[in-house]
Amino acid sequence: MCGIVGLFLKDRTLEPELGSMLTDMLVTMSDRGPDSAGIAIYGDPNNGRMKITVQSDDPNVDFDALASTLGARLGTTIAVHLKDTHAVLEMDKRHGDAVRACLAETNPDIRIMSTGELIEIYKEVGLPKDVAARFDIAGMRGSHGIGHTRMATESAVTTMGAHPFSTGADQCLVHNGSLSNHNSLRRRLIREGMAFETQNDTEVAAAYLTHKMQNGSNLGEALEAGLEDLDGFFTFVVGTRNGFGVVRDPIACKPAVMAETQQYVAFGSEYRALVNLPGIEGARVWEPEPATVYFWEH
Q: Which residues are catalytic?
């Protein structure tokens, strides 16, 4: 049992409130997942610069002089913005791949949470309210975001086991459920060139969608294909640079509710996650249909 929340803003005047609204939604789902939590925020473009969000169990050591070390090795300017156990590295997007390679070589204890022009992912072990407070999620602005509270049932409670999972630039996924064919699908995706950092079935689902989109599918098409290729019980909420998607498996035993107004589209594992959203009393509220893809794009 896990908790999922998501918010896609149509009204740009609400963007300064995105982090605050998502935090409230996430904390409300604490009893569905008290062992760890995470959230992805899609913020404002920054003149073509790329962001790499990273995590360390020993940030005082691993992040000390990180900007100067990377900059000297790569001959470019790297900005590092610290947030508790995470840091956001900003650079010209031409140097993104080189920075990732350099981190893997020189700082193997630093874990990459997300990459892209807009996305930042923060996740840690602990109660959702504590995780959100550590990273001041309520103070963040953006156009859309998704969050997850985890109750681990099949794998260890670790930072890397927390959701969201990101396997492509400006892409991420949260999941409530369990996939039965993730091992065979992981092997297939590895043969196709995808890389994995955990044994978590959710990372496989994220990589599957990334692979589909890298090969020409849009988000909706990738989710439709997943209904054929992914076995098990699942509710997915997915974020991309411009989009927000939801799909449930054909049996749809995992709870889900959506709301839409002229200002936003919202998702919660339960309706109580949505009750404090502005204008919720006038929203169209519904339960997503089984084996039906819903997605919105800016």
A: 2
pLDDT tens per residue, range 42-87: 998 888 799 999 999 999 999 998 999 898 988 989 999 999 999 9
232: left (phi over 0), alpha (psi -120 to 50) or beta: left
For the purposes of burial, counting CB atoms within 10 Å of the CB of 221, is it exposed (0-12), middle (13-18) or buried (19 or more)? Answer: middle
By the 8 A CB rule, do 120 and 53 touch? Answer: yes
Whole-model pTM: value is 0.96
Query: The sheet that has 49-55: what strands, in order across it?
Result: 79-83, 86-92, 49-55, 111-116
Residue spans of the domains in the chain: they are: 3-39+149-297
Sign for the pseudo-dihedral over CA of 99, 104, 105, 110: positive
Please provide the CATH number assigned to the domain covering 3-39+149-297: 3.60.20.10
What amino acid is encoded at 277 in this protein? L
